Amino acid sequence: MGERKASKDGDRKVGRRALLIGGTVAAAGSAVLARDELARLWWRTPGVEKPRKEGEVDYAGARWVAASEANWRRADRPDDYDIDMVVVHVTQGSFDSAVKAFQDPGHRAAAHYIVRQDGHVTQMIRELDVAYHAGNRDYNERSVGIEHEGFVDRPQDLTNEMYEASARLTARICARYDIPVDREHIIGHVEVPGTDHTDPGRHWDWEKYMRLVRRARTTPA
Q1: Sheet holding 121-123: strands in order across?
Q2: Global pTM?
Q3: What is the chain's percent helix, strand, coil content, to nearest 5?
Q4: Residue 6 Cα distances to 11, 14, 61, 108, 161, angstroms
Q5: pLDDT-derived band of residue 8, with 50, 70 and 90 as boundaries?
Q6: Four-CA torsion 28, 30, 36, 37, nearest 10 degrees
């Protein structure tokens, strides 16, 4: 009887302690969630936006060339819109023609990045902001768009240098926003609902690209 009572008392003390600790953890968790939600609400307040520096890039090594403001929308992602996707494009033209198009306010479209055939990366829109690249508002708001110099019907345009540079870029984007490295979250423009585009086309080697992204994802930046 005494042993059973001691056992019950011991269980009661442990249970009470666990309850107190659990309550503290829950309260702390609630505080963290409340803080995060307040931060998100703050960045959604009209007239409030994150600090920006002219010419600043999100990917080390990228060159900044600004797209026309008509081709993107100012935002404060990921606080106002979660980023959970990378959309792969092919320019259907040269690098220079893509830059020129994205700087044209009448084009009404642009991607965050362009990767040249030699592996050079140009950023034209901050990841904070919503680029008009996917032809679908929801996908624009939740994704980063990467263009690749070339034509969908010319496999020779898809160089190893381009694949490797793009994979490193995508890996860093995925790491920054905790995006899973899989084909559900790294997609082609053709896979966006409602689009009439076919890029990156049948010659785009998804198996190779995803292998390179996974390798880059586990390699220190």
Answers
A1: 63-64, 121-123, 113-115, 143-148, 85-88, 186-188
A2: 0.80
A3: 45, 10, 45
A4: 8, 12, 67, 75, 71
A5: very low
A6: -160
Query: Are the C-beta atoms of residues 81 and 124 closer than 8 Å to each other?
Result: no
Residues 86-141 have pLDDT tens digits of 999 999 999 999 999 999 999 999 999 999 999 999 999 999 999 999 999 999 99
Distance, in Å, from the CA atom of 40 to the CA atom of 151, rounded to the nearest integer, reads: 40
State what percent of residues in the chain have pLDDT above 70: 77
Angle at which helices 160-177 and 206-217 cross, to 10°:
50
Range 55-58 contact pairs with CB under 8 angstroms and sequence separation of 24 or more: 56/126, 57/123, 58/123, 58/126, 58/127, 58/176
Listed residue (14, 77, 6, 71) closest to 40, CA to CA: 77
Measure the CA–CA gap between 169 and 159, rounded to whole angstroms: 15
- For residue 50, what pLDDT is reported? 75
Look up residue 18 and give its two tokens. 């666990």
Where is 54: in which H helix or E strand? none
Does the pLDDT at position 60 exceed 50? yes
Distance CA 110, CA 131 (A): 6
